[in-house]
Amino acid sequence: MNSSATAFEKARADGRAALVGYLPAGFPDVQGGIDSLRCLVDSGCDVIEIGLPYSDPVMDGPTIQAAAQRALEGGVRTRDVLRTVEAVAATGVPTLVMTYWNPVERYGVPRFAADLAGAGGAGLITPDLTPDSAPEWIAAADEHGLDKVFLVAPSSTDARIAMTTAACRGFVYATAVMGVTGTRTTTSDLAGPLVTRTRSTTDLPIGVGLGVSNGDQAAEVASYADGVIVGSAFVRTLLDHDDRSTGLRALAALTEDLAAGVRRA
What we know:
Number of strands: 9
Number of helices: 12
Largest sheet: 9 strands, parallel
Order of helices and strands: HEHEHHEHHEHEEHEHEHEHH
Shape: globular
């Protein structure tokens, strides 16, 4: 299993933060999603997050919602997500699934963990599942050596952050914007203090997601975080380009700009 921790360690050895890229599986279709994710890898992403399209998102903004809806309308199912994981993990880059909990519970937690591990997945990011509500997932993840990535937020108490980081494996996801996801013109002033508070509880890498959309913002976040997580900007790039080859070129250009930003920091 290729844990995300290995990518963070390599980036740290290179004197930089890791670039973490997100796209939903099945967008614009299954093969198109695989091609887009491989483009992220080829253009500089160190870790990949693959979204499991879900009909009732809690924290996704309109951009990711639109892409997920297209995937669902195209008939994407959990098996397609696992097929996407297998194709992307074959590149050697740690590949995680980011999903709301209901689809995993419906699929069957032990079965999902086994199938994710069998596809070469590194682990799971669970935005609406907290460690104190996750004994079945924690047991299944431990059985298969999968990363367990839980979220901390600016509203988290110090005790809550400590409890959350103690349950994580791979890295900790710091969501530094209160509200739904989406690109922003400025980075949040809540991110730095959240990373400081989180770092006091763990030696795990801390990845920050807060709507980064360009290399300058990536450099700013990379100056204090171990990882810069980008999702909505990648999705928006594909939504803005109907022609697949043009979209992939734009996706590669954006990824290269973001990768250059984390190197500058």
